[in-house]
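Friendly challenge for the regulars: who can give me the structure tokens for this chain first? No prize, just bragging rights.
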Amino acid sequence: MTKITAYVKIQPNDRLDNMKKTSKEEIVKKSIGLFKQQGYHNTSMANIADICGLIKGSLYHHFKSKDEIGLECLKFIHEYFVDNIFSIAKKDELSPKEKIELFINKIDSYFLNSKGGCLFANLALELPSTNTAFKDEIKVYFKAWEEALAKILESKYSREEAFSLAKEYLALTQGAIMMMNLHDSKIEYLKVGKKIINLL
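First reply, four minutes later:
Bragging rights claimed.
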């Protein structure tokens, strides 16, 4: 009797009931983890459906394709960074030193608690340059990061110097994220953050 009950629980109708309770945001959040840890090409719609507790066809009630899910994942992360990290550069109630410390602490909190590195950097390397939809979204994200950091640095440096430093340290941060995941050690990654803070 127990085995029959267990079988009934995974019938399609029950999966469809679960689908009704699964929002687009939940699908996006779970897809981000899959894309970061398995890679974009190695993640199928079936994988996404499985981790969401859905049948594959149910995903199409929310998204037309994996590419659409991928783009939504990038937009979701970008929005998070804009609201919680990049916006720090515009907080006039904070001193430049307080801004850069909070900026780095928030970035550290995100990447130290998120397996698989940076989805934007991962996809920039994994997907062909001909995929302009993804490429454009990735460029916008990194440009926003660069501009936010440069805005904070302009309290001490010229605009040209601030942007040059922002580009340099964004590249260092991304490299450090990659190495942190490769070696499973956060020591070198955290050194980059300290160097950025010490710029002010």
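Residues 1-20 have pLDDT under 50 and may be disordered. DSSP finds eleven helices and no strands in the chain. Your move, everyone else.
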